[in-house]
Design goal:
Elements (H helix, E strand, L loop, with lengths): L7 E4 L6 E3 H16 L5 H10 L7 H10 L14 H4 L7 H11 L7 H14 L16 H6 L3 H4 L1 H7 L2 H10 L2 H14 L6 H31 L13 H15 L5 H16 L6 E5 L6 H16 L3 E6 L5 H12 L9 E4 L10 H6 L7 E5 H9 L15 E6 L9 H14 L2 E7 L28 H7 L3 E5 L8 H15 L1 E5 L3 H11 L8 E4 L5 H16 L4 E5 L14 E4 L3 H8 L11 E6 L10 H16 L8 H14 L7 E2 L1 H4 L3 E2 H4 L19 H7 L8 E4 L5 H13 L3 H11 L3 E4 L1 H9 L3 E3 L6 E3 L4 E2 L3 E2 L13
Amino acid sequence: MIKSQSYIAHVRKTDKQQQTVAVHLQEVAEIAKTLAAKINVPEAGELIGLLHDFGKYSASFQNYIQSGTGLLNPDIDEEYVDTAALKGKIDHSTAGAQLIWEMLAKYGKNGEGRLCGQILALCIASHHSGLIDCLTPEGTNGFKKRIDKEDDRSHLAECKQNADDHLLEQAKRLAGKPLMLSMLKQISSLTKNDQHEAIKCFYIGFWTRFLFSCLIDADRINSADFERPQQAAYRNKTVAWDIAIQRMELFLTEQQVHDTPINTIRRTISDTCKNRAQDAQGIYTLTVPTGGGKTYASLRYALHHAKTHGLGRIIYIIPYTSIIEQNAEAIRKVVEQEGDQFPWVLEHHSNLEPEKQTWHSKLAAENWDALIVLTTMVQFLETLFSGGTRGVRRLHQLANSVIIFDEIQTLPINCTHLFCNALNFLSAHTKTTAVLCTATQPLLDQLNSPEKGQLLIPEENHLIKDPKQLFDELKRVEISNKTKSEGWSEEEIAELALSEFKVKGNCLVIVNTKAWAQALYVKCSDSVDRDSLFHLSTNQCSAHRNELFHRMRTRLAAKLPVLCFSTQLIEAGVDIDFASVIRFLAGLDSIAQAAGRCNRNGRLDTAAVHVVNPAKETIDQLIDIKVGRDKTKRVFSEVNDKALLDPENMALYFNYYFYERADQMAYPLTAKEVGRDDTLLNLLSDNKLNTGANAALHLKQSFMTAGNAFKAIDAPTQSVIVPYGHGKCLIQKLCEISKDFDASGYYACLKQAQKYSVNVFPNVWKKLREQDAVSEIQGEGVYYLENHFYSSEFGLSTEPVGKAEAIIL
């Protein structure tokens, strides 16, 4: 017999206020209903919200929560249990899944009820783990195994007995034939006859994931708002695109006083985008040369398009954290003013949310609840495909939105087909418009294996009709191919850099590896005064890099000398203007992006980007760079230097590059990863290579296996907060807050700490742990770096910081 007659879902930490199971279920149902309306099945959202924690009606769960929150006394109450020993072992998600399956599976002559029941039951059964495998890698029917779980472990019969009558009646009313027909109508719209079978299966699986996202976010929102009632007021922001548009147009009018030939061209591009914003929703391209004003042109398009179609959000997907702040600052300057009720712009940088979420991190997690969101391609891809519940929570926010992809050519090659299928789905079924922005447009609508998925971009959806003319008008640099058969030595590259620096007054050298950036910086440090010499790499946190960018821009504007050695992080979208650029041989798209940092504002009649090939370079593990370099060599042999950056030659390069890598575009997986050679695309579609592919199941995806295997970058990285500048104070604050947890303070600090964090690969993380260079903040899965492992010149170091020393090449 449990102590309280009320069945408890949560107990507020601050004042021990109780939230009953019935209240939690009904409030989550209301939120999930609103969110699921985005895919036209509000009742499906309401039903899974209503039953997701149905298992909390069991005595096992009630004894567990009441013991853990002090409502049961270990010295008096027989029902008291050891919560630490039982953590994660009390199943409260299976009962609701079983109940939905029981209610819906009986409908339809051809298993239609079983299809709908499986989708909804999956969402509920998975809401703590991430979507489970319908088929396990070994071919076992994972869904059946979960639904057939014994009653003494799922507690379904007991929960039915204990549940509030009105809640059961509401569930029965919802789980009927009308719901099934409503779901089937939407599912049939996903599976048109002209699609390949694998894509149809992918779409149904992705639709399930979208519904799952609605449940996860509804549950997290309600739990967070119960813990912090005052924050609920911040959720329902009024969408006032008229105000943002008015501010945008005024800003552009004021900019016209700076009239130069380049600004005139930028204004024409911007006007074109504004005019095209009235067009129908869909997938569009914006192919504009570097320095063509894409940030403001795309913002203008997005604002007008959002207003025209009644959309609720604009999301910028940016390749590197290094340019999120730059773009966010540019957008804030246009749309935000003092006195606004809410900030317009949200930045979501590196991933400081721990892989295994604690209750604290779930409350503090970012769900992109803002009108204009800037995040990275890594975060976007994890939202689409990662396992667990952390990333998928944000998926539904992509609906009813404009998504601007800045520098789309940086899309990881192994995610190509997955990305295309997901974006086609969002565009066709969730009122989402996508704009692919770049100077170097990859051919994502002309792939070698269209049956695996390629973007559907009608000819009229290219916002710039004649990119070639635009490239000719904005041409400000020539490519100087200085590659040679024996390659360039370190000494020769340093001499070229110093020569350009002395003659032109400033020079940027972009290399392929951190080792080369450090080595050249050290090599030139005796020849260049400290104030003029700069080093940039992702070992520095974004706040550190932004401080260096600021100092460089200030010096360049004052015509003071600058010599900068950087990895490719400076290429995509960074607003900086050098008189000379030296680029290590790489993909032609990278060379074109490097050219965008040279004579960017047309102050010189012409300038040169010198392409050199180092004699020694360790890039065997950097496949993207290595293959790109080899295909650029081929284009160099076929095309005159003066025409290398023309759009048709960029298309030639991507043809060669994509042909070479066609077999890597479906995210190949090895037997070591999933028990056989397979692809992530296959696991998330028809799963045809699975030995259980003939099982009597409608959905056969291995969702959890795929989610666990998926990484948006080749190796999983660990975020660590570094003691640079204000980062030291944030580390101290986070340590203090986590002792006596304050969710809002913790979240605010974590948000600020994004710009003071560095992502490190497993080999570096191992070295840091061995050196005791990192410490965890109070068991929260968030780590910080000890002071003496961060260098003012090179950033994070695996050795205690001493004098500047180059890594051996």
